[in-house]
Amino acid sequence: MISTKLTTLFNIEMPIIMAPMFLVSDSNMVKAAMKSKIIGTFPTLNYRKEGELDSILKELNSFKNEIEDLGTYGVNLITQKSNPLYKKHLNICIKNKVPFYITSLGNPKEVIEKAHKYGAKVFCDVTNLKHAQKVFSLGADGIIAVGQGAGGHAGPNPLHILIPSLKQKFKDFPIIAAGGISTGNGLHSVLVLGADGASVGTRFIASHEAPVSQEYKDAVVNAKSEDIVMTERISGTPSTIINTSYAKKIGYKQSWFEKLLSKNKKTKKYFKMLIQLKGMKKLEKSVVPGNYKNLWIAGKSVEFINDILSIKKITQNFKNELEESIKSNRF
Ligand SMILES: Cc1cc2nc3c(=O)[nH]c(=O)nc-3n(C[C@H](O)[C@H](O)[C@H](O)COP(=O)(O)O)c2cc1C
Description:
By secondary structure, the chain is of the alpha/beta class. The chain is built from 13 helices and ten strands. It has helices spanning 5-10, 27-35, 52-66, 86-95, 109-116, 129-137, 159-169, 184-193, 214-222, 245-250, 256-263, 268-286, 311-328, and strands spanning 16-18, 39-43, 72-78, 100-104, 121-126, 142-146, 175-178, 197-200, 228-231, 239-242. Helix 2 links the parallel strand 1 (16-18) and strand 2. Helix 2 (27-35) packs parallel to helix 3 and helix 8 (184-193) packs across helix 13 (311-328). The radius of gyration is 19 Å and the shape is globular. The relative contact order is 0.14. The mean pLDDT is 89. Flavin mononucleotide binds at residues 19-22, 24, 43, 76, 104, 125, 146, 150-152, 178-181, 199-202, 297-299, 301.
């Protein structure tokens, strides 16, 4: 129905990437996304136990080979120095010939070089023109422009500025919009701005397949955009969360001492690792049922999420709403 650089590059039906979500996206969600003929992705950090990532990738590769007419899958690598599993995970992904990579937070050079050796594609998360220029010159195959209101590490710029400004500069380069898109209307709007597709996270938390607690899914359905706040208490880098009573209790800022340790050259790397580890533990507890210390990552698109649906139905709704929006021809 709709053809963009994203749909042609990956031979998919809808220009949608189911975005990588820490502690949320797993292989079942990815398979459901592939069956819905979109791209399903997950952060490699969701599989931290020895041997786990390798077996998941083998499982996804055989799923892809056995069934015809599927979408595809990809992994997200946090290329930051403070990710202790980066090198190990990259090598496992390369060995298993992962077809698609999304890099975030650090320098993607090594991923691009290694992935290109066997024809895989690498898209890089960026939040501004400067970073986009950098990944473009390193040979990335596309960029994911993360704007305001996105779930996780949201960018500072609204998509209505970010997408057209990137488009002006990188005319024939695939640009994917991320942040606040949970309806076909929203998808239509970023296509009009010049994007080749959308990377959608928060909408897929409220799915039957998401392996998180019912409380977390219900919180996404019940929250409104003003319930989404930024906190530094998870990874040091500001991240969007639902403003639960626990989030309010622990506050949103790092203390002066934490700030000092995260800026000092000698302590920076190790302190960040420690903060991330502590943040990860808090998040891990939050996604299981019955926990009251709730730190739930979600973006402002919760405003339009009113139901928990299957991934197939979510994709179908995007398709129907996009068609409607294009047909309505209001302007
Ligand atoms: C629960 C959650 C976890 C996330 N974890 C990651 C992650 O591990 N790595 C990453 O690059 N982005 C992560 N993100 C950001 C998403 O990949 C994507 O950019 C974002 O969800 C898009 O905005 P939206 O949530 O408004 O659709 C996360 C987002 C959410 C909601």
